[in-house]
Design a protein that fits this description.
By secondary structure, the protein is α+β, with helices and mostly antiparallel strands. The protein has five domains: about 90 residues, 2-Layer Sandwich (Beta-Lactamase), CATH 3.30.450.20; about 150 residues, GAF domain (Beta-Lactamase), CATH 3.30.450.40; about 100 residues, PAS domain (Beta-Lactamase); about 120 residues, Beta-Lactamase (2-Layer Sandwich); about 230 residues, Histidine kinase-like ATPase, C-terminal domain (Heat Shock Protein 90), CATH 3.30.565.10. The protein contains 22 helices and 29 strands. The two termini are about 60 Å apart.
Length: about 775
């Protein structure tokens, strides 16, 4: 006990201090109390200690207690660690935690500040967000004037994007860089002037109209890349600036939020540019495209639609989409189609009648999908009409022909000789009689080309088994039977026929009567129709894929940037919380890795925008280990908080895949495994890759909270579907991951037990098409 520097007390169950040990260096405030041979109940501030001693003796388990006392005008905080010594006594070690308590209070102050920023800006975006940010900065810093400025290097000026003066929004303006504090702020990374700002920057235009004394300012950087500032953020005071130990830290917090929003606005502009490219495709594709708003009013229409229907754009835009249907189709659309569409969010191949401008009726198949933004709000409905007028006409003609065949078969006995269809009667497989139409269809010269020959001799080898089965079934069921087959003519040519067999009695013997007619033209037409349908289906699939790629890019841009940005903010908080040299070095090392990874991701996203319609050309041979290391470097803070351990075994070392997709897939799955770890338990994450039967696979398994697949399995990969109360869950990652994998011909599966863990398995598809090195 002599080597323990903290005071040690031996206390019995009645509260009496039986023994008290002090080290020569022990806290004089504790020595002054005089614990020995006194009862701890005599001290009002030891109420928590009394209860903890009783609990320790009752449970025979370690306990902790806390108390505070004032000593020589200083408020000191202590923690007492209590261990059972026997059934009636405990040992209590008293440790001073004043500095720790002060640090906790300081962290709480920063937390409250961050919470205030979030609450003040969470309901706005864009310029409104920046206006709220400058207003919140004025409150936090008690400043008279706050502003966010960006540099326009082409004009050598500063453009303000948000100004708050005396708690009110001020119209934006421009200032010359020359004479402003901008260059000194950039050179020093942080500039603080306690008084005399107006004299120091007398040529700064803002000083022409106001008298300011105090100033603080920091640079603004996209993605915290400090080599190229985009502007600066500052606060001004009419009175001299009082000493503030947190001024720089607070301003850094606000500047990082402002820079992040400015970058989001810039990325949104790039996405809108991509949408303009999509609109060009929308108008130039040979398909009946149109779009409506939530009320069903047409807001966009493709050029091909107008060309084929005869309408002008002015005839269509602003009109109800259902007003272009026949009355019967309009009624059907309102009562049947629209309720199902609004419930499901899509419809496919709905038969309707569309009225062209000249009054002609066009039979169409409608396919439509409902487009929502990232927040799940309605954006518009995109529709495509497939003209099936000719197909429907052919179908009606075919049905009419079938009806004629059936009627002719029913009247066979009366119309045999003059029947418009060929009729053959055979007994025990030998032809007994044929009509004149049979002679004509089979290119014979007379009835003697058939009589006495087997019926099967006129059946093409490809149809023999089906024809024999049909005859056997007629004898067995005594019911008529119809099928299509190839028929061998007398001259050796082949025609396709539809034949109907019926069991009859001919000259006192059971026989089969075959009525048939030539359907060669119809079959050729059907094959042409199928080919056309296949072409249209391929076109629609290509259009859908291109649209999905555009949507996937928007999700990836917002989702994949969130993790590294969050990591950087966390590293900044660590840096603000602990100024030790080791912590500072740790923060800068990991911040640099995260910044470099984020910069590479943005460059790759820009490349995806430029070549989004040629995704296959972006594939390259990637090493799983390189991709994983990049991702882990970008989320070191998350890994540290989860105390995560990774077990990696890549039997298949490489894969031929788009880099931005592979990084997004692995990052989503790894961060999910960390995010849904069990509380108070270390996260164990196992990553594997392998080849099997010519296909490539990747898996990630964890020991986390798991998912109830019976309850949530069907919605697991849905957009914005979440299944745990994790505050960081958004229901986007798995949706993006599944869309990326399936867009390249792969698939993803999940195995999970609630409370045990989860395993995701990615099937990349046929390996010879996607990989060049195992």
């Amino acid at each position: 006990m002599k080597i323990v520097k903290d005071p040690i007390l031996r206390i019995d169950r009645f509260g009496w201090v039986k023994e008290c040990h002090y080290h020569p260096t022990s806290d004089p405030a504790l020595i002054a109390i005089g614990f020995e041979q006194r009862n701890i109940r005599d001290f009002d501030f030891l109420f928590d200690l009394i209860r903890s001693v009783e609990l320790c003796l009752q449970t025979q388990e370690s306990q902790s207690a806390y108390f505070t006392l004032n000593y020589q005008r200083e408020r000191k905080h202590y923690e007492v660690l209590i261990e059972p010594d026997d059934e009636d006594e405990v040992l209590a070690i008293v440790k001073e935690i004043t500095k720790k308590k002060q640090r906790e209070n300081e962290l709480l102050e920063y937390y409250n500040l961050l919470q205030s920023i979030y609450e003040g800006t969470s309901s706005s975006t864009g310029r409104d967000y920046l206006d709220q940010l400058t207003y919140q900065l004025s409150k936090a810093m008690k400043a008279d004037y706050t502003a966010v400025c960006v540099v326009d290097p082409r004009k050598d000026v500063l453009e303000t994007v948000s100004i708050s003066f005396k708690g009110k929004k001020v119209e934006n303006t421009t200032w010359k860089i020359n004479g402003s504090p901008y260059e000194e702020v950039i050179a020093n990374s942080y500039l603080e002037i306690k008084q005399g700002f107006k004299n120091r920057f007398s040529r700064f235009e803002l000083n022409y109209h106001h008298l300011f004394n105090g100033f603080i300012g920091v640079p603004l950087f996209y993605n915290q890349i400090y080599s190229k500032p985009i502007g600066f953020m500052f606060a001004l005071y009419e009175l001299p600036l009082f000493e503030g130990i947190h001024n720089e830290k607070i301003l850094q917090i606000f500047s990082s939020r402002a820079a992040a929003e400015l970058e989001r606005i810039e990325n949104q502009r790039k996405i809108e540019y991509s949408e303009e490219r999509f609109k060009a495709l929308y108008n130039n594709t040979p398909a009946y495209f149109s779009s409506t708003n939530k009320s069903g009013v047409v807001i966009e229409v493709g050029d091909y639609f107008l060309e084929k229907t005869g309408y002008s754009r002015g005839d269509v835009i602003g009109k109800w989409s259902i007003d272009f249907l026949t009355p019967a189709s309009k009624k059907y659309a309102i009562r049947k189609v629209m309720p199902k569409f609004l419930k499901k969010g899509y419809c496919k191949d709905v038969a309707l009648e569309f009225v062209k401008k000249n009054g002609d009726i066009m039979e169409v198949m409608l396919s439509a999908t409902l487009i929502k933004d990232q927040a799940g709000k309605f954006v518009k409905t995109i529709m495509n009409l497939n003209d099936v007028t000719l197909l429907r006409k052919i179908e009606r003609e075919l049905r009419e022909s079938e009806e004629r065949v059936i009627q002719a078969a029913n009247r066979f006995q009366l119309l045999f000789d003059n029947s418009p269809v060929g009729i053959i009667i055979h007994t025990a497989g030998v032809i007994r009689h044929v009509n004149s139409e049979t002679i004509r269809l089979a290119r014979g010269n007379s009835i003697y080309d058939f009589i006495g020959k087997t019926a099967m001799s006129f059946v093409h080898p490809e149809s023999k088994s089906a024809a024999q089965a049909r005859i056997d079934k007629i004898y067995e069921t005594k019911k008529a039977h119809r099928n299509e087959q190839k028929f061998l003519c007398v001259d050796g040519s082949v025609i396709e026929v539809e034949a109907m067999g019926t069991l009859i009695e001919y000259e006192g013997e059971p026989s089969v009567q075959i009525a048939f007619y030539d359907i060669s033209d119809r079959k050729n037409a059907e094959r042409r129709i199928l080919e056309r349908d296949k072409e249209l289906k391929t076109l629609n699939e290509n259009l859908a894929r291109q649209n999905n790629q555009l949507e996937e890019f928007a999700h990836i841009a917002s989702h994949n940037l969130r993790a590294p940005i969050t990591n950087m903010l966390s590293l900044i908080k660590i840096r603000e919380a602990d100024s030790s040299e080791a912590t500072q070095q740790f923060v800068w090392d990991n911040l640099g890795k995260t910044v470099r990874n984020l910069d590479e991701t943005i460059i790759e996203l820009n490349d995806v925008v430029k070549t989004s319609w040629e995704l296959d050309k972006q594939r390259k041979t990637l090493r799983f280990q390189d991709v994983l290391e990049k991702i882990l470097n970008s989320i070191v803070d998350q890994i540290a908080k989860a105390d995560a351990e990774f077990d990696v075994k890549f039997e298949m070392s490489t894969v031929f895949y788009p880099k931005i997709y592979l990084e997004s897939i692995i990052q989503n799955l790894v961060t999910n495994a960390i995010k849904y770890k069990k509380p108070h338990e270390r996260a164990m994450i196992y990553l594997r890759s392998w080849e099997k039967n010519g296909r490539g696979y990747f898996s990630i398994e964890d020991n986390g909270m798991g998912i109830n697949l019976e309850k949530y399995g069907s919605r697991l990969f849905g957009l914005r579907k979440t299944f745990h109360s994790n505050h960081d869950a958004r229901g986007v990652g798995l949706f993006i991951t599944k869309a990326q994998i399936e867009s390249l011909g792969g698939s993803i599966f999940v195995e999970s037990t609630e409370g045990v863990g989860t395993k995701f398995i990615v099937d990349f598809g046929t390996l010879k098409l996607i990989s060049t090195d195992h």
